[in-house]
Amino acid sequence: xxxxxxxxxxxxxxxxxxxxxxxxxxxxxxxxxxxxxxxxxxxxxxxxxxxxxxxxxxxxxxx
Length: 63
Fold this sequence. Notes:
22% of the residues lie in helices and 38% in strands. The chain is built from 2 helices and 4 strands; from the N terminus they run αβαβββ. The radius of gyration is 11 Å and the shape is globular. The mean pLDDT is 94.
């Protein structure tokens, strides 16, 4: 997945499959599990850091 595609998903709820595709991208250099989301019930919040230092927030039911 490209950097632009990943940036377009910032703050979105994604499936486990999409999350894994993003996580396996060469654009990702950091990962943080921020715990349970306060915005989306039954979702976990993840912060991913892109190669340029940009952080994106993603929400996923499970990884």
